[in-house]
Amino acid sequence: MGRLRIAAVAAHFGRDLEFDLRRIATLIDHARQSGADLLVLPDAALGGYLADLRHPDPDALPPALEPSCPELKTVQALAAEMTVCVGYCEADGARRYNAAVCVTGDGVLGHHRKVHQPPGESVAYDAGDSFAAFDTPVGRVGMLIDYDKTFPESARSLAVDGAEIVACLSAWPTSITDRAPRMAQDRQSRLFDLYDQARAAENQVVLVSSNQTGAMGGMRFLGQAKVVGPGGEILARTWSKAGLAVAEVDVAGEVANARRVLHHLGERKPFAYREG
């Protein structure tokens, strides 16, 4: 497949779906101008995330969208030849999920419902129950949402399923209980980068991490979008500001090179690991 241009987004999205779609259109346009083959938008890019993670207001939740809604159809049309991952609140009857889809102009390629929920989020969303990789024009991809990447098993499940690219879509805030005076000093800022690099290195995959910026209610989002190579090295990043982190990567070549001597997936000892 050769070299790919991969872009991760740091940007703010809120409850106004028309505004969100205009911003997505602008970001896709900028990514296309940069030659991007894959664009990863943040979690909740359609409708915004929660305004309060500890005590979500049931009357002020993100709009729940059907998987066949006009908004997602619009994102597909905007994507055209590009592969685009986008997060939204998914309606499934009376249930709501923090979800993401991966699309091109031809339709939906993959789907994920956030499995791991921080305290309070279960008031707003039901939890997903699986991780699965899927084939795309840019290779085999898997998706994680927010807190999923805190758990090594999440990304490992995708890598075992053949993913060479892991897209992590986030609306990741600064620390809620012990916020630092400067964002760069915040505990969650450090953890966000640590998880991105660790999940890439331990699975020897390319990890594409998007995140929201700005604020929603009492939540202040970190940004820090980045592309991480299979050795854990950061190839491109936005820091805390809005923008695109763009890197050109020979995904198959870099993954194969990382696994040439030490092949983490092949050297696992599942019989020695405790289940549950």
UniProtKB/TrEMBL annotation:
Record key words, sorted: Hydrolase
Entry-linked CDD domains: nitrilase
Protein name: Carbon-nitrogen hydrolase family protein
SUPFAM superfamilies (alphabetical): Carbon-nitrogen hydrolase (SSF56317)
Domain of life of the native organism: Bacteria
GO molecular function: hydrolase activity, acting on carbon-nitrogen (but not peptide) bonds, in linear amides
Organism field: Amycolatopsis carbonis
InterPro entries registered for this protein in UniProt: Aliph_Amidase/BUP (IPR050345), C-N_Hydrolase (IPR003010), C-N_Hydrolase_sf (IPR036526)
UniProt domain CN hydrolase: residue ranges: 4-251
